[in-house]
């Protein structure tokens, strides 16, 4: 029998040469990766990054994280979502725009798309998406379009109802009001009886803008008219200011002067308030943490005034920077989270906080909870800040400068006279709209 030893030795020599060659190549490749910080092609994974807000109802963030993971699996990519307090976005977003470096998808609430539109990608899918969703409400177009160009997706909007204690109203024989005057009178009666207060922020915070613009409009006043002429110096503005001064002096305490956007939640959940003007985040948190308060909490639409019912539209929008690294993937992800079934899931998970800015949302099960069912009609009388003028960059700058909250606070607290408060606001608005 012939020995195969030479063949084994030859094979071993070949295998050794192959190993050394492969090892050398691997070492050289590793060195290249370490020097250039670039992963090999087979290991590279597309990543889309998103900047979002810490939602006041955590279920919304949990859903977004879950959908990011699902999208990543289905598309062999990664979606990295960073959540920050919404106030931090005042610095974060301009910095990303200035440095042209940051997230692919960026949070743009209220009318901020108008502030950053020059560096935002055109979202060419929005009209088709709107058709699938039954059409956009005007507030969506006003927030997301600049000069007819879609620069942001209004993912949801936040209704701002009256949140009140049914038990306190019943105990003190108060009917549920429908007007601002009625809420002041009921609030005073309850406060006089048992010390329970009411709450509207008189501070430089988003909730103050939301509430106080509504009061202005309901009394027939506005910051500007349709032609963007400043109209704040009017008898109607003075009536609105007188109302707030009376409300502050008869129903509130100076703690509202330092409130941020979480303060009215905490105050109401603490059990010493009969009503606040705030979103359903209170209701949601109470269900989990303060069930006794949850059981006696109810809601109505924003009250009416002499000029009718006017709510403030609060859209939460997402745009894509035109310097984003993954523009197309970012668009695909925005479309993915805008599937109507996902939007309806978030609507119910947040107990109507994530309200739909599209007309197909009317078919959602709004009646699931009778205590939030009325909010279905909120968008029908809601306006963007700056109304009846356009929701443009000047309206956004006015909102961000806290002109309306400062005017109300000056007069309610006696820092300025009625005329001086109005004149100050007029001067500031003239500067914003004519500058």
Q: Report the total helices.
A: 18
Radius of gyration: 28 Å
Number of strands: 15
How is the main sheet built? 4 strands, mixed
**Structural class based on helices, strands and sheet pairing:** alpha/beta
The averaged pLDDT comes out at 91
Low-confidence stretches: 1-43
3D structure, described in words:
The protein has 435 residues and is an alpha/beta fold. The chain has a 4-stranded mixed sheet with strand order 8-9-7-10, with helices on both faces. Strands 3-14-6 form a 3-stranded antiparallel sheet. A two-stranded parallel sheet has the order 1-2. It has 18 helices and 15 strands. Helix content is 48%, strand content 13%. It has helices at residues 5-36, 58-75, 89-99, 112-116, 126-132, 138-144, 166-171, 180-194, 206-218, 235-251, 263-269, 281-289, 291-295, 327-337, 340-349, 393-400, 403-412, 418-434, and strands at residues 47-53, 78-84, 105-109, 145-146, 149-150, 153-157, 162-165, 197-199, 273-277, 297-300, 304-305, 308-309, 311-312, 315-320, 382-383. The chain has 2 domains: 44-158 and 314-375, D-Maltodextrin-Binding Protein, domain 2; 162-313 and 401-434, D-Maltodextrin-Binding Protein, domain 2 (3-Layer(aba) Sandwich). Residues 1-43 have low confidence and may be disordered.
């Amino acid at each position: 029998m012939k020995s195969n030893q030479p063949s084994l030795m030859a094979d071993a020599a070949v295998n050794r040469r192959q190993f050394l060659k492969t090892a050398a190549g691997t070492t050289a490749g590793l060195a290249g990766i370490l020097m250039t910080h670039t992963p090999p092609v087979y290991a590279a994974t597309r990543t889309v990054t998103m900047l979002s807000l810490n939602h006041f109802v955590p279920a919304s963030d949990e859903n977004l994280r879950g959908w990011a993971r699902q999208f990543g699996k289905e598309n062999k990519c990664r979606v990295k979502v960073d959540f920050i307090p919404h106030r931090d976005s005042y610095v974060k977003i301009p910095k990303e725009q200035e440095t042209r470096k940051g997230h692919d998808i960026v949070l743009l609430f209220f009318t901020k798309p108008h502030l950053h539109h020059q560096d935002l990608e055109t979202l060419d899918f929005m009209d088709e998406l709107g058709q699938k969703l039954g059409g956009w409400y005007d507030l969506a177009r006003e927030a997301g379009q600049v000069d007819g160009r879609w620069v942001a997706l209004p993912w949801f909007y936040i209704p701002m109802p009256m949140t009140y204690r049914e038990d306190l109203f019943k105990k003190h024989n108060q009917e549920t009001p429908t007007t601002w005057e009625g809420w002041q009178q009921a609030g005073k009666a309850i406060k006089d009886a048992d010390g329970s207060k009411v709450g509207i922020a008189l501070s430089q915070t988003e909730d103050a803008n939301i509430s106080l613009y509504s009061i202005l409009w309901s009394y027939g006043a506005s910051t500007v008219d349709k032609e963007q002429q400043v109209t704040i110096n009017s008898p109607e503005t003075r009536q609105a200011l007188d109302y707030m001064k009376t409300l502050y002096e008869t129903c509130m305490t100076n703690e509202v002067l330092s409130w941020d956007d979480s303060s009215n939640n905490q105050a109401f959940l603490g059990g010493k308030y009969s009503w606040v003007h705030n979103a359903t985040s209170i209701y949601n948190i109470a269900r989990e943490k303060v069930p006794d308060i949850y059981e006696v909490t109810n809601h109505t639409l924003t009250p009416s005034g002499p000029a009718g019912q006017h709510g403030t539209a609060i859209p939460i929008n997402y745009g894509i920077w035109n310097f984003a690294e993954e523009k197309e993937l970012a668009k695909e992800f925005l479309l993915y989270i805008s599937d109507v079934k996902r939007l309806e899931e978030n609507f119910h998970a947040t107990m109507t906080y994530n309200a739909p800015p599209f007309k197909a949302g009317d078919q959602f099960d709004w009646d699931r909870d009778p205590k939030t069912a009325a909010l279905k009609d909120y968008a029908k009388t809601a306006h963007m800040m700056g109304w009846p003028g356009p929701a443009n960059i000047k309206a956004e700058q006015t909102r961000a400068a806290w002109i309306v909250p400062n005017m109300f606070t000056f007069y309610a607290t006696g820092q300025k006279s009625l005329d001086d408060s109005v004149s100050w606001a007029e001067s500031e608005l003239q500067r914003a709209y004519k500058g």
